[in-house]
Amino acid sequence: ITVLASYVDFGSAKINILIAMGIATLKASLVAVFFMHLKWEDKLTWAFAGLSLPFLALFVVFDVIDIAIRYGNKLFGSLF
Questions:
Q1: Closest to 33 in 3D by CA, of 49, 21, 48, 19
Q2: Which of 22, 37, 39, 60 would suit a FRET pair with 8, their CA atoms being 20 to 30 Å apart?
Q3: pTM across the whole model
Q4: pLDDT digit string (tens) for 1-27?
Q5: Which residues contact 46 (CB under 8 A, 6 or more apart)?
Q6: How far apart, in Å, are the Cα atoms of 13 and each of 2, 7, 44, 67?
Q7: What's the rounded Cα separation, in Å, for the pair 48 and 10?
């Protein structure tokens, strides 16, 4: 699905990125639930696994802010 979606132009770079991130999120969720056996774990294990998501979001936001400050319109001018 990821490879097929990379060949399709959905109209703008924003939509292409959102679709790619959606596919990646779905794949990561499936890996966590089935391959990491979270489906069969108790609620405390789910809580600790879910606690990592806000920290991941925080790191991604700070990375985007840093890149936007360093490169400005050279990189994000066509996206935003």
A1: 49
A2: 60
A3: 0.68
A4: 999 999 999 998 889 989 999 999 999
A5: 38
A6: 16, 13, 39, 18
A7: 36
